[in-house]
Design goal:
This protein is of the alpha+beta class. It has one domain. It is built from 4 helices and 8 strands; from the N terminus they run ααβαββββββαβ. The strands form 3 sheets. It has a 4-stranded antiparallel beta sheet with strand order 2-3-4-7. A two-stranded parallel sheet has the order 1-8. Strand 5 (79-81) and strand 6 form a beta hairpin. 24% of the residues are buried.
């Protein structure tokens, strides 16, 4: 049985869960609290989730979260043409909770690939 935190992180990183992983989920969906706890752990260890932004490099469609000097930053980029990406927009947010909501919105919103987010959980 997969750990709910691992599943929530995989969903945020890959925007997909396979059928056996989906069967492990509660009927209400992935608990938002597990997403928050998992991302907080990743930020504490790596400083970034899901990917690190390298200066002068595109990271692709979507958003990524950075922990910098005890502040939470969201960096967002979108495809504007075939293989062409917008400038990276960076903004400070008040919490990891808000940052994850931004990340989900940048990925097209909830549900993520048909997987619901349990915002109350």
């Amino acid at each position: 049985m997969a750990d709910m935190r691992e599943l929530s992180l995989k969903l945020l990183e890959t925007l997909h869960l396979n059928v056996p992983e989906r069967q492990e989920l509660p009927s209400a969906g992935v608990p938002f609290s597990e997403m928050i706890a998992g991302v907080e752990e990743q930020l504490a260890v790596r400083g970034w989730f899901p990917v690190r932004v390298l200066p002068g490099k595109d990271f692709g469609e979507g958003a990524t979260i950075e922990l910098r000097d005890k502040e939470i930053w969201v960096h967002e980029q979108h495809e504007i043409g075939v293989g062409r990406f917008s400038e990276i927009e960076s903004r400070r947010v008040s919490s990891v909770r808000v940052a994850i909501k931004n990340l989900i919105k940048a990925a097209g919103g909830s549900p993520i690939d048909g997987v619901r987010v349990d915002w109350s959980g």
